[in-house]
Amino acid sequence: MSETILKVNNIHKSYTTGKESFEALRGVSLSLEQGEMLAVMGSSGSGKSTLLHILGAMDAADEGEIRLNGELRKDYGTEPAATRIRAEQIGFIFQDFNLIQDLTVEENVALPLMLAGEKNRVIWEKTDQMLEKVGILDKKKNAVTELSGGQRQRVAIARALITEPKLLLADEPTGNLDSKSSTAVIEAFLNAKSQIKATIFMVTHDAFAASYADKVIALKDGIVFGEL
Fold first, then answer.
1. What does the pLDDT look like over 82-93, one tens digit per residue?
2. With CB atoms 3.0 to 4.6 Å apart as the test, which of 34, 42, 126, 183 could cross-link to 46 if both were Cys?
């Protein structure tokens, strides 16, 4: 029986600028099982980024419930709990990779374990294992500036997964990539799903990337418009 990693119920979020109020999310509900990949699609202004920020504990919902790994977190988007949630339970992948240019591939991937104070032997063992899972172990001594876009994104995926987060959030992970690099990134996601039961929430405009998801939902004007 699969385990529900993420359950979102009736999330609302509004923003006020001057005298204008904008309702970004209007009662969004969804769930995600362990090892599942969910793709969220929608035009600009549909609420995708707002939803991603709330699930990433970078913003708080006005109302609604979020259960992560079965636990109801009323403090999900508020400090200091938000920082702990981001550090301990969520991995992030960004469109522009967010890698540290002065570090090698293996140093970028190992960084979260270093910051967590893990033992050196464990750090490098886990780093090698994760780089092998995403298919770039042979590049571990390279500078990230020597890699293609697809390879850089696979480094970012390895770094996001190294702490074994409950939930992986991906923001337009293929947005800056050509078709070959996009395929390599999707393969890395599929390997992570099959090998370590990674649970992935992906915001994307890319129909190719979305076609590999287990579930695809469309957002329109802050509402879940349907499952594709």
1. 888 888 888 888
2. 42
57: left (phi over 0), alpha (psi -120 to 50) or beta: left
Sign of CA dihedral 197, 88, 206, 222: positive
**Contacts for 173 with CB less than 8 Å, ≥ 6 apart:** 93, 94, 95, 153, 157, 185, 189, 202, 204, 209
The Cα 97–Cα 89 span in angstroms is: 20
Element (H, E) at 41: strand 37-41
Strand partners, 23: 14
For 183, left (φ over 0), alpha (ψ -120 to 50), or beta? alpha
Tokens of 96: 């522009």
Which residue in this structure is represented by tokens 């695809």?
216
